[in-house]
Amino acid sequence: MNAETSIVTLARSMEVAYSALDAEAGLFYDTTVRVKVHADRYYPDYVAVTLLWLASDHIFHGIEEFTRFRDDFEDRPEERYQQIMDSWPQVFGATEKAMKKLFAPVKPVVKRPPWSLCPRCHKPVWAEEGTVDLRETRLLLKARPHPLWCRVCGQRFEYANSDSLACSSEFSIKETMATLESMFPTEQPSFETLQIESGHDAGEADNG
Ligand SMILES: [Zn+2]
């Protein structure tokens, strides 16, 4: 087993409803919550990531509520997740329901690598199709060849075997076309270009 474990810090910005007074005074608050996890480990790290993702749905009423939450959350969430959920029902709702999200079964990713999306939050596993260039995409794949779970929502990914990430097995031609277009954006002649070309040909034929 590979002993190398990489610790990453994942951060999410929370929504905090400021008081009108603070807004008027132009006060700025850091509303980020951070969690340190081992990217090469399953439990309990993905659980902490899911908990952070669930919390980001909540709008905190004022900076005081947020600060209390952040200080509680950032204290070993991977060990204390049950306690954190019980202490913050206004953030996580019913514990039983939240638990189902924390311990959701593994799922195949949507779309083939390198543009696979998380099956739960639909964020890119590596790179965003059509936005990140191929060179950078290759580097991202090389850096993380075996993502165990989503770094946004903590959803665990299914592997067909130790080396092969499972992905949705059906692909539409539309999806394939979109993939090709984002790979070779400049080499795809547009519909207009094709029309101009054929128009030009016709003109030449008339002249001759
Ligand atoms: Zn996700």
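qc> The pocket of zinc ion is lined by residues 118, 120-121, 123, 150, 152-153, 155 (CB under 6 Å).
qc> done
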